[in-house]
């Protein structure tokens, strides 16, 4: 009944009434996040650290039943727990979710909610894609036009970019620095690290709209999807501008790892990426880039590489001494379509079911830092649409990165349907049902581009 599946679950006989108290000890010899939970007659937790205690509490919520995930008690009946022993520890150090808040802004309340949903699934890295061609979401006090001008666009592409349609509806928003400090602190309480990303030198049209001198070609905040050929200039003035932007970012985000993007820059510029990477290292941080950064010339060995175009680049990065996060689009892109039916809303990308995600096994699993799902939001314009795209596929991914690779899809299906989906119901998650979308989750007439 536990998801992600623990290393071992030993049931006892009967159950016990739980008053909410826990006898906890930081005496367990194990990796960060490891814990041993004993239920009966009381509840005793031994953990390797505070993270282990936190994950044990998540397991207790699961054992207590779906109503334990509601915002307030709805029953006067006592909470009963099955007598058992649970021994558990995470498989990977990096169990991440990349959330694109640049294409469609996710208000702070909903961003905090996603931190909670990650915590339920024992995920521990929230990678925030804060800037792109379609929007700039980070308040920059030295260069305020970045968020004041770059933070909104007059329209958005209607469905897939090949359709040629536009919504005609303005879209925008940005997080103040204090908003983001709040998100970082809230996540830290749940043992989640927030890794920010400001994408350079491509995916920068929103910044160019605010400060045209930064770009090779001037232009407004982009209202289209896809790869924009416009990129930042590689001159020293533009690099220095971004050094100052990243300095503000570092003041807000304490994460050791800081994202600089580096992807899909047509004709890219290795000098720009290298100079920003060096600046981050000089500030005591570790650069993080998409796998295209491997092509820009020598990078600091501390650079973390996100292997998204497949896994070959990740293997190359390992051979060069980099830490690697596997996130190949064919396996973990949660904006891709979930069904082959015509009722699938805005069907883009390859077919990727929850069963496909569950079957994913990261290459070089014994050498990589971990893995993450990527949630791009070109076609996810509301929290309800994000819920539909992410769940229950994120549940399957959570088990991949937490539990041992021995997996049984039918056993997982039974746990998912019988135990975990009711928890999502209690949390108010509007997931895609296993049988297909509900009528109000479809978007008839909105064009997609299935591959």
UniProtKB/TrEMBL annotation:
InterPro entries: Beta_hexosaminidase_sua/sub (IPR025705), GH (IPR017853), Glyco_hydro_20_cat (IPR015883), Hex-like_dom2 (IPR029018), HEX_bac_N (IPR015882). It comes from the Bacteria. GO terms for biological process: carbohydrate metabolic process; glycosaminoglycan metabolic process. Residues 28-88 form the Beta-hexosaminidase bacterial type N-terminal domain. Keywords: Glycosidase, Hydrolase. The active site is at 264 (proton donor). GO terms for molecular function: beta-N-acetylhexosaminidase activity. It is an enzyme of class 3 (hydrolase). Pfam families: Glyco_hydro_20, Glyco_hydro_20b. Its EC number is 3.2.1.52. Belongs to the glycosyl hydrolase 20 family. This is beta-N-acetylhexosaminidase.
